[in-house]
Amino acid sequence: MQAFLSSSIPATSYSRSSLFLPQPPHQAPVKLVFPSSAPQRGSGAVAADAAARTRRTASEAAGRSGRCVAASSSSSSPATAAVATTEVPGVMKAWVYDAYGDASVLKLDEAAAVPALADDQVLVKVVAGALNPVDAKRRAGKFQATDSPLPTVPGYDMAGVVVKVGSQVKNLKEGDEVYGMISEKPLDGPKQSGSLAEYTAVEEKLLALKPKVLDFAQAASLPLAVQTANGGLDRAGLSAGKSVLVLGGAGGVGSLAIQLAKHVYGASKVAATASTKKIELLKSLGVDVAIDYTKDSFEELTDKYDVVLDAVG
Q1: Which DSSP category does 221 fall into?
Q2: 193 has which bridge partners?
Q3: What is this structure's pTM?
Q4: Binned average pLDDT, 10 residues per bin, the chain of 313 residues
């Protein structure tokens, strides 16, 4: 899949004034490449039709360390989502767990309560939602001290259509196609009702309008991964003229870090590691040096880099 890197991709900060990534001046939109293969042990994303997914598949996906994106079958196409009416039901379908544990604690609740709407929130009809490693860790109980009460509807990343707005919402309206990560502090008091449901309530400041060149599954795959990539490069002090080595360049975070480094930060040289079968992907992302870690050890290479981003961990 291919799309375009747009100023509508949320940055690390969630404030309205800094919701967007910086863009290089006087430059046309940059083509953004999404890895087309299924997620490996990194955090690559794959779009799938929810109609073809069974409860077992969803449960297993929630337990893996990679990312998974599911598009709702309520839309005829992942790229479109028609909202016929603004009438919102009182209950919805949602994935829920009421105890911590492995993937077996997840259950499909067909009568979950639609979350109440605060004045600064919008209610989004979810078209596509994504799973991240943090979801599995949260479900396993690793953040119990700061977690929301049980039962929990998991999920942070999503893309969908606004169907209702709170009284203090200023910039979004019904019918807007949006995407984002719904909890401002994922580990400190995350929302009890997350994105793996038919509806989710989100503060306006946490959302951006979905670029027209992205379908809903692509948009849902971006928020946490691109914020991780951007946050890492920013904290490491990457800037124009500096060089960077990305470890794990074929995954979700790594592939986005390569493109951000190249086209947004203006890195002078971008290198990345991947397995043999992913070397061509690295080249398509625009790396200057593609390193096959099955054949060469990056520690033994003579090249030196200003920044190293470890997307493997």
Answers
A1: T
A2: 153
A3: 0.73
A4: 30 29 41 47 32 34 52 48 64 97 97 96 97 94 96 97 97 97 92 97 98 96 94 96 97 95 97 97 96 90 93 87
Name the DSSP letter for residue 102. Answer: S
Dihedral angle of Cα 178, 179, 183, 184, to the nearest 10 degrees: -90
Strand-strand pairing, 269-274 and 289-292: parallel
Q: Is 295 helix (H, G, I), strand (E, B) or coil?
A: coil
Relative to beta strand 2-5, strand 30-33 is: antiparallel
Query: Tokens 């911590």 correspond to what residue?
Result: 100
Q: Which two tokens stand for residue 42?
A: 């990194």
Residues 6+ apart with CB under 8 A from 188: 146
Sorted by where each starts, the structural domains of the chain and their CATH numbers stand as 91-221 (3.90.180.10), 237-310 (3.40.50.720)
Extract the runs of DSSP E, i.e. beta strands, from the chain: 2-5, 30-33, 47-49, 68-71, 91-96, 107-113, 121-131, 157-165, 177-181, 199-203, 207-209, 243-247, 269-274, 289-292, 307-310
What distance, in Å, lies between the first and last C-alpha atoms of the chain? 26
Per-position b or e across 21-35, b if 16+ CB within 10 A of its CB = beeeeeeeebebbbb
Rg (CA), the chain: 19
- Phi, psi at 17, each rounded to 5°: -70, -20
Given 3-state DSSP classes, what are the helix, strand and coil percentages for the chain, each rounded to the nearest 5? 25, 30, 50
Strand order in the sheet with 307-310: 289-292, 269-274, 243-247, 307-310
Is the separation of the CB atoms in 72 and 198 below 8 Å?
Answer: yes
C-alpha angle 251-148-48 in degrees, rounded to nearest 5: 35
